[in-house]
Every structure is written in C-alpha cells, then in structure tokens.
Amino acid sequence: MTTTVPAGTGHRRALLAVDGLTVRFRLRDTVVHAVSDLSLDLHPGELLAVVGESGCGKSVLAHALLGLLPRNATVTGRARLHPTAGDPVDLIAVGERHLARQVRGRAVGLVPQSPATALTPVRTGRRLLAETLRAHGHPRRAAAGAAERIAADVGLHPTDLDRFPHELSGGMAQRLATALALAPDPPLLLADEPTTGLDRPLVDHTLDLLRRRCDTGAAVLLITHDLAAARRVADTVAVMYASRIVEHRPTPDLFDRPAHPYTAGLLDALPDRAFTPVPGHPPMLTDLPAGCAFAPRCPRATDACHTPPRLVADGGGRLACHHPLTSKAPA
Ligand SMILES: Nc1ncnc2c1ncn2[C@@H]1O[C@H](COP(=O)(O)OP(=O)(O)OP(=O)(O)O)[C@@H](O)[C@H]1O
User: Fold this and answer.
1) Averaged in consecutive runs of 10 residues, what is the pLDDT profile of the chain (331 residues)?
2) What is its main location (predicted)?
3) Ligand 1 pocket, 56 CB below 6 A?
4) Would you tell me which of 12, 95, 198, 283 could form a disulfide with 202, CB atoms 3.0–4.6 Å apart?
5) Is 34's C-beta closer than 6 angstroms to any atom of ligand 1?
6) Ligand 1 pocket member 58 (CB < 6 A)
C-alpha cells in the first residue's frame, strides 16, 4: 500500500515508505501496543514532524526503523528505504548485519533522545566526531577541520570538543549528538527531540539546521513535543495518539484547519492559543479501548466511535476520525 502524499511534498518516489508498521513489547503478564499499523511516506527534501503526548510511540517508531529495539519487541510491517543508488531495502526484514554496516549512521542518522547515555563516555567530542567522519570516508587530515565545522554548525565552540561527554551540559551533549548524526551526511535523519535542554535561540538554530538539510535534498523525521517547532520547520505533521497516526497533513493545513479533535486539543493547549490542556489522560498501551482510543476524551464521541476509525485520505492529508471537525457536529 502507498500512503497518500500530503499536498506540498511533491509526488517523487518516497525515500522511506513505512507500511503497516506494528510494534508490540511482551512483558511478563501483558503486551504493550507501542506502534499500531503505522504507514507513512517520507520524500527527499521533506521534513516530517511526528507529534503527540508522551508515551504515544514516537521514539519506538524511530528505533524500530533502525533495529534498535530490545529483544522483547515484536516488529511487523514494512519500511522500505529507497537509497539514491542501489536497491530498496526493507529496514524491518533486512537483519542486524546489514543495518549495522549499511544503514545506521550511513543511510539513516539518528539524533537520540538521551544523548548523555548514547555518547561513548571515554572519548572526547573531538575524537568521536573525527572517528565518525573517518569511518565515513573523510581522510584523517580533513576530518579534524570538518569536525570543527560541524561542531560550529550545531553551536559548539571548538574548545567544547575537548571535553568528555560527562563534562558536557545536557544541551551541549544534545548538540554533540546532533553533530555526530549529521557528520556522515545521511540522506535520512531521525531526530528524536533534538532540542531538549536547549535555550530558545539554540532551539531555533538547531531547527533551522535540520530545515537546511532538507533544503539540500535530505529528509528529516523530527520527533517532538514542541508544536511551535513543528510549525516553524515541518512540511508535514503526523499526529500520533496511543500508538497510531490519527492525522497527517501539510503543516499550514494542520495548524489552520485541524480535523481531528485530538489535534485541535493539542493546538488549544498552546500558550498562544487557548492554553487549555487536553482533558483526561491517554489510555494505557497495555489496555487500549476496542474502538477509537481518543473517544473517552473526545467531546464529539458517539456510539460510532466504538468502531476503530481507519486512517484514510482526507483533503490533502490523512485522517482517522468518525466525526472530524470539518464535518457537522454529531447529533
Ligand atoms: N522496552 C520496552 N518494553 C516495554 N514497553 C516499552 C519499551 N520501550 C518503550 N515501551 C513503551 O512503549 C510506549 C511508547 O514509548 P515511546 O518511548 O515511543 O513514547 P514517546 O511517544 O516517544 O514518548 P516520549 O515523548 O515521552 O519520549 C510507552 O508506553 C513505553 O512505555
């Protein structure tokens, strides 16, 4: 199945085509439904923001694409990566050896959510960056200069590179992790909350850096809680709720005319809008309702919502809702 391409992203072949991705974690006496039947296409030059409340499955999505989930995870579905040269590869089926040699870092970069734990503790930032660059073909001499340039790009001072990860503040570690992911110049970057711990100017600086990657042909999947960040740089926004995408459309449409009541709720929570949180709490992913998972919190829910809504084409995007805000209020 090919997902609808939200208008504004062009109709070129997708760099990444995710189809029916499902992730379950087996625990001793229960199962966590972390990602459910998730489909999306990401095109060269596109910045897709994935937003949603904490625990809805955003990071698990990124980790599933890179084969980084623990052994209690079961992953099904497909995620085809179409490199510019060579045959497409299904990231879910391809196996650890290929992921380690050809994909992670090289074809798909990851800015991890917790850089402090992801950075090798016994090497300085300079050494980490130089090693990464050399592993991706930079000659030793050129690597030193390139490391300083990339560090400057993310807002690190050259002297910051001489520190070990434990000597860096959270924000500095975040920037170093971003620099390490950008260094091999991957055509696809998964950035999981890349602005955590940064002050506003550095947030904007990092977002603009990601945007520029897309403007030169890369694709970025930006995982963020920060809707203002998504609005600033994303071409399209996918809203996740309780393991599923519930709405996905071009950024201006999503912010100006949200169709899913949950999207509208997230927007109403913004300080420059109603500043009212979405009432209630998301369901446990171990105990999802049979129908629409948002129904218990939704002002428009009716009996129809006992049936799970399918994610279908809607305007220039995709929507999973029986009673969208763009239709008449249910009786
Ligand atoms: N190894 C694991 N075993 C069991 N459950 C897990 C595991 N890893 C993640 N989960 C669960 O999967 C769900 C999705 O987690 P995920 O980290 O993707 O959320 P998220 O949307 O990225 O949240 P946040 O924004 O807080 O990072 C959560 O309920 C989480 O507890």
Assistant:
1) 45 89 97 98 97 96 97 98 88 96 93 83 92 86 86 92 92 92 95 90 92 94 96 97 98 97 97 92 95 97 97 96 90 74
2) membrane
3) yes
4) 198
5) yes
6) yes
